[in-house]
Amino acid sequence: MRKAPRQRRSRATVDTIVEAAARVLARRGWAHFTTNETASAAGVSVGSLYQYFPNKLALAEEIRKRHLDAVLAAISSSDERDGAGMLEQRVAKLIDGVVAAHSVDQQLHRVLLDEVPLAARSTQDQFEAEYLRRYQAVIASASGKPDPERDDIAGRVLSGAVEGVVHAAARHGELDSPALRAELIDLVCGYLRRRTAS
């Protein structure tokens, strides 16, 4: 982002631009995504858009950052210790949160994954570190006895499994499948139980 909005009105303008950009990007794909069409869809001048975003890549990065923030929020809400919560309930909360974050606009998610250039992923390293930390917290919470070295590897395995299933389902428009949800919950619960038992 070229300039951070400070006042409520400018923050609202940026939100409007980003929401319009997400709609245009999902509908038109990366190759036909333009700042002119985005400005028109947002009801602002191209000059107003350029005050905050120097090009379409910066817009795509902001859309992606907001998506990643939603994914992190979904994971963090499921890693809290809840004495009354059964493992299945905590895992279901995790899966439902991750699926919800990816269900907002499945077409947009597909475009972000498959079409937007890697240059728009400048925050990837920061996201990956926090993403893994939150999965490690889920693992430590399930086992009750943290083991940093094992939890690090387990976090990578678990996040890769959940991410792979959810991304494949998003590409095929199957995120709302109850059968897929049940299988993914069984997969994660089985993995966490086996780790705790060993």
What would you say this structure looks like, in words?
This protein is mainly alpha-helical and 198 residues long. It contains 9 helices and no strands. The protein has helices at residues 8-28, 35-42, 46-52, 56-76, 87-103, 106-114, 124-143, 148-171, 178-197. Helix 1 (8-28) crosses helix 2 (35-42), helix 4 packs parallel to helix 7 and helix 7 (124-143) crosses helix 8 (148-171). It is elongated and about 60 Å long. The N and C termini lie far apart (47 Å).
Give Rg in angstroms. 19 Å
Number of helices: 9
The parts where pLDDT drops under 50 for at least 5 residues are none
Distance between the termini: 47 Å
Major sheet characteristics: none
In short:
With 198 residues, the protein is mainly α. Helix content is 74%, strand content 0%.
From the structure above, extract its key features.
198 residues
Write the layout of secondary structure elements.
Blueprint: H1 8-28, H2 35-42, H3 46-52, H4 56-76, H5 87-103, H6 106-114, H7 124-143, H8 148-171, H9 178-197
